[in-house]
Amino acid sequence: MVRRVIGIDLGGTETKIGIVEEDGKIVEKKVIPTRVSEGRTTVVTRIGEAINELLVQSGIDSKQIIGIGVGSPGSIDHDTGTVLFSPNLPDWSGFGLAAMLERVTGIRTFVENDANSFILGEWAFGEFKGSQHMVGLTLGTGVGGGVITHGILMTGSKGYGGELGHTIVEPEGPVCGCGSHGCLEALASATAIINLAREYSKRFPQSTIFASPEINAKVVFDAAREGDLAATLIVERATRALAIAIGNFIHVFNPEHIVIGGGISRAGDLLINGIREKLPAFVMTSFNGTFSITLSKLVENAGITGAASIVFYRTS
Amino acid sequence: MVRRVIGIDLGGTETKIGIVEEDGKIVEKKVIPTRVSEGRTTVVTRIGEAINELLVQSGIDSKQIIGIGVGSPGSIDHDTGTVLFSPNLPDWSGFGLAAMLERVTGIRTFVENDANSFILGEWAFGEFKGSQHMVGLTLGTGVGGGVITHGILMTGSKGYGGELGHTIVEPEGPVCGCGSHGCLEALASATAIINLAREYSKRFPQSTIFASPEINAKVVFDAAREGDLAATLIVERATRALAIAIGNFIHVFNPEHIVIGGGISRAGDLLINGIREKLPAFVMTSFNGTFSITLSKLVENAGITGAASIVFYRTS
């Protein structure tokens, strides 16, 4: 019988829920507003209701579901499914998310950090499915990291590991949200790109970036693609920071594959080629030919299937 | 019956060999010149003879030895015990060291990179024996790294992983032997400290560093301890680089313990306090209280016992 799980991509704004089969096929899905301000109990109850509706719609009994996987922002204690700390889910610190979702649904529940869920999704359904040595980076509002090494999802002693976005690539670089200077996140996240664009507005007032009603990462990448100088400088800086950081991860993990996802990965060739061009300066030649670096191909439903893969990983 | 192994600390200049018991006790040991220039076959034959002598001296039959562990410089394929690449052992690339040592001795042999062997030694016999999440740094001529994560010695897909000394902490910093700029090794190895001292000789000709007949890391640390300005600047720079790198490893691995060994660790308090003071600037507060950072207490025989621990790890 085909194994089915529920994948939940818990976001600060919206939550995506889907019934997912072992091959990654989404049987049914639903997007609901998260409404964090209404409190964690209400949020989880609403998620429980949405799961019920999905099961009814698809005619699947909850007993046929082998588990629920939740990809959540923040640091997670994945043994207990407790949210340890999450900037996007204030007052969820110490919240036993898995335990409450289990009470509401009667289904065994596993929770992982969303970047860990991303790399598990690659491990389960991605281009390099089954690879035992992969590094994942999610480039969005922040920069998340997930690592599979020797077939194990590496989370460290307390579940805080894999914070690749907060490794430092420019010790004298811009201040990061975490308080340090020059973290990868302070140079290559959407937030960093927007901040840098704002700084450049005085020096490059004619840049096409500032002709746009809103400054965001897409506007900057689009302008760079058209040859805009300010945008090109910003993209160069972000891709250089990524090349330095990825070079470090290659030396540390000797991975087979580095996979990049998240909203910024939609920048496509401009992003990946920028990184690939700069990478050789930061990697010892003995590593040549040991790794690939690519953009994730699981764009559309990556959040749901990644969350679903947590269950397949934990029960494999 | 007590389990006994042979540990071999293979160095560019000398090779230390010992019979080691499960509790780390060295029954008998011997130091022989490596004489790399005489060729790898001669070197291994000489090691085989030394092992025989040790067994005869201690009245132990080779059948009572459960294995030989070799800590070797360079990148090692630990599945086959082949030296992939080693700057200190030229023309050993592709050499099946384990296979040849097995032929010579008749004893099952395991080979690991010497920095991996260092952290396995900590895992087997160190202050935090048995910890499942440890990062080791060996500060000597170069900077080596070894990582145990989730109880596994992390070596990556081809055995090249754990090259912590070649992660970049100052992208505009001094050139490293590997060709990159600002690797940890280019800032915190004995070589880096000596290079920096030489650069400072024009600006600080009266520094007590230059009163010494030879410039080495010990001279610099001793001068810094006496308040010498040039020496203090060098030690500050090295400990800052270590703090940045260790901060990165904490975010990546969320280890319980970071243990520092190698010749430079003899600088003691000046080194460890310098790192500890600077570290908080580079680590997110959510990691507070999750790790310890200490100097290895296994100084004298660390090479032999570390090599021996490879066998205990592989057969555990």
Structural class of chain A: alpha/beta
β-strand amount of chain A? 15-25%
Please give the CATH architecture of the largest domain in chain A: 2-Layer Sandwich
Structurally, the number of domains of chain A stands at 2
CATH superfamily of the largest domain in chain A: ATPase, nucleotide binding domain
Taking the sheet with the most strands of chain A, its summary is: 5 strands, mixed
Q: Could you give the order of strands across the largest sheet of chain A?
A: 3-2-1-4-7
Written overview of the protein:
2 copies of one chain form a homodimer. With 316 residues, chain A is of the alpha/beta class. In chain A, α7 packs across α8. The first copy, chain A, has 2 domains: 4-122 and 301-314, 2-Layer Sandwich (Nucleotidyltransferase, domain 5); 131-295, Nucleotidyltransferase, domain 5. Chain A is built from 9 helices and 12 strands. The mean pLDDT of chain A is 95. The interface between A and B is large, with 49 and 48 residues. Chains A, B: Keywords: Kinase, Transferase. Chains A, B: This is Transcriptional regulator/sugar kinase. Chains A, B: Pfam families: ROK.
Write the layout of secondary structure elements.
The structure is a homodimer of 316-residue chains.
Chain A: E1 4-10, E2 14-21, E3 26-33, H1 40-58, E4 65-72, E5 75-77, E6 82-85, H2 97-105, E7 109-113, H3 114-125, E8 134-139, E9 143-149, E10 152-153, H4 185-188, H5 190-200, H6 217-225, H7 229-253, E11 257-261, H8 269-278, E12 292-295, H9 302-314
Parallel strand pairs in A: 1-4, 4-7, 8-11, 11-12
Antiparallel strand pairs in A: 1-2, 2-3, 5-6, 8-9, 9-10
Helix pairs in contact in A: 1-2, 3-9, 5-7, 6-7, 7-8
